[in-house]
Amino acid sequence: MHWFTGLFLLLLLASTAMRSWLNQRQVAAVLRHRDRVPEAFARQIDLAAHQKAADYTVAGAALNRWDVLLDAGIALLLTLGGGLDSIDRWWQAAGLSPAWHGTAVVLSTFLLAGAVGLPLSLWRTFGVEARFGFNRTTPALYLADLFKSLLLSLLLGGPLLFVILYLMQQAGSLWWVYAWLVWVSFTVLLTWAWPTLLAPLFNKFTPLSDETLKQRTEALLERCGFASKGVFIMDGSRRSVHGNAYFTGVGRNKRIVFFDTLIERLQAAEIEAVLAHELGHFRLHHVRSRLIFSLGMGLLGLALLGALAQWPEFYSALGVSAPSAHAALLLFMFVLPPFTYFLTPLGSWWSRKHEFEADEFAAQYADASQLAEALVKLYRDNATTLTPDSLHSAFYDSHPPALVRIARLQSLTTQRS
Question: pTM to 2 decimals?
Fold first, then answer.
């Protein structure tokens, strides 16, 4: 066995075992606290809601067990199992040019991988989400979303993939620099176009119409020095009763988006506080720093791919008989996760840090106690567990645990009172 084969198998086994162990820790922690609402939330969340959140978390964890095994199985089947070689040979009969051949192989590989994961997606939506009263997606809407996603992937991702494979084959040893520039341009264009051109293909966005709430939000936007295309309400209730809010877009296409389910549940002061939090991410340059970091990691990744693509044993050690640009790209994408998995806590920590900073910003321009009230309502209505396992949370959670976050907001309220 080649040493790189052994390293890949070792890291795949270690990451799979770690994912399974953390998943089980989460289940144990949630069940251990299932029969008692934490003291800090006893006034706002009753035992029935707390137990629903626990059961919902456990049901999600049960599904995650299959996700973990499926990810490992797909990685093994496509690499050492000879799957990529088989797909490659199948397309050779079409007699396509190298770039078109590579594009067809990559797209069909991801289509097959997506098809394998489709039953779990269906069970998540029509099984778990429906059982706990969250799903509103009809089979027709699910199929429509799936068709639109596949079509967009083909129309947008297909040409990008073709250009990158062409550069890998024709642009010499520095192809990865040119590919990165293409990818950066594509990412910026997509980020700019998403709010106004692409997202409306899936959801309806309407300007905020409540005059009282509109005046409050406009005043807040002015205080924060934020210029955007406005605050919009998204018909999230078509698919789910979960509530959320997010910031999207760049340049003059910036938007603040609230799910209609969130607007229905929160009071005006609470919505203002949530908006202040979202504005904090922009004013504190979180969106920009994450984008720059992502682009920098993309450059590093392409440089690494450029080096690996020139190493013949990279292919043979991972079950591919004939080196090619598309084989290098596919191997890199399916093999990289086990090598980077144990860096996950760093990204989670950075995200939680940004959430704390945005909360502090919100406390300056709105009422921290109202933000806390809004978050507790969202925890309750979204069946978010209040008692996650500490290690699982530190490893994965992009937002601080409920107890920690609410306690911090309460301290900010005390400081400003």
Answer: 0.91
